[in-house]
Every structure is written in C-alpha cells, then in structure tokens.
Amino acid sequence: MQRANAAWERAAAAIGLPPFPAGRATEAAAVQAAAKAPAKATGGTRILSEPVRSGRQVYAHKGDLIVLGPVSHGAELLADGHIHVYGPLRGRALAGMSGDKSARIFCRALEAELVSVAGIYMVSEQLEPALVKKPAQIHLDGDRLVQAPL
C-alpha cells in the first residue's frame, strides 16, 4: 500500500500485505520495521511457464517466483522469497517483499528497469554495465544491493 497513513499500514500488515513504501526516505523506515520480524518464505513457490507481458503483475505470496520465459518491459515480479528468471529480465523484480533480507534475484539476462530486495532498490541506470544482458544475481550485503555474475 503506497502513501498510506499509519492506521492503513497497520491494517494492511494485519492481513499479511507486504509493505510498499512510496520512496527512499520512507523505505529505510519500512525496511527497519520489517527487519524486526521478517517473514521468511515458506512454500508457496509459483512457477510461470509463459512470458510475462508488459502491464502484468505476478506475486508469489510466502514463496519464490520462478519464470521460465522472458519478462517484458513494464511487467512486475513480486515475491516474498527469491525470484528466478530463466530468460531476459526487462521489467521490475522485487524480492523479499515481506522483509526477507536473504532473498535474491537470479536471471539469465539482466536488463531490468528496477530491482529490489527487502525494500532496497536499484534502477536500470545503476546496473553494472559489465552485467547488462548477462546472467546475474542481485542480493543484499547489509543495506546495499550487490550485483554479481552467475
């Protein structure tokens, strides 16, 4: 829930909705709150065998998301656990939506518009040029996103 007041955020948390802060300033507070009691992904793995087209949002609640095809620009992948893309990742990928700082994003061709782990995000302009269109993984090291080849 974006731009919600504190009462709406508490109500959303009570029914298990993940935090989705409006910006970087509120994101740090949301990550700190989630770090107190992160929800680890247990089960609920979701596998998609078809491409994820622009405008589509796919969410793996309390689990990992595995996409066997390409992810188009404008598509959005969300998971409480890890995200695996066995094709080009061109859209947005947000892993660890419930605050799991150990979540990772794996892809065969990194071309993402935005990547995020546990609320810490990075936009396409910040991607390592040597990793663009190459197999890569994204994970947290403290409060910093790390890009590494696969």
Total number of distinct structural domains: 2
Rg, nearest Å: 14 Å
CATH architecture of the largest domain: 3 Solenoid
The SSE order reads HHEEEEEEEEEEE
Mean pLDDT across all residues, rounded?
84
Structural class: alpha/beta
Helical proportion, percent range: 10-25%
The description of the largest β-sheet is: 6 strands, mixed
Fold-level CATH name of the largest domain: Pectate Lyase C-like
Please state how the strands of the largest beta sheet are arranged side by side: 1-3-5-7-10-11
End-to-end separation in angstroms reads: 33 Å
* Gross geometry: globular
How would you describe this structure to a colleague?
- The protein has 150 residues and is α/β, with parallel strands linked by helices.
- The protein folds into 2 domains: 6-36, no CATH class; 46-149, Pectate Lyase C-like, CATH 2.160.20.
- It is built from 2 helices and 11 strands, in the order H-H-E-E-E-E-E-E-E-E-E-E-E.
- The protein has helices at residues 6-14, 24-36, and strands spanning 46-48, 57-60, 65-67, 76-79, 83-89, 92-95, 105-110, 114-117, 120-123, 136-141, 144-149.
- A 6-stranded mixed β-sheet has the order 1-3-5-7-10-11, with no helix packed on it. A 5-stranded mixed β-sheet has the order 2-4-6-8-9.
- Strand 10 and strand 11 form a beta hairpin.
- The protein is globular.
- Residues 23-28 and 34-41 have low confidence and may be disordered.
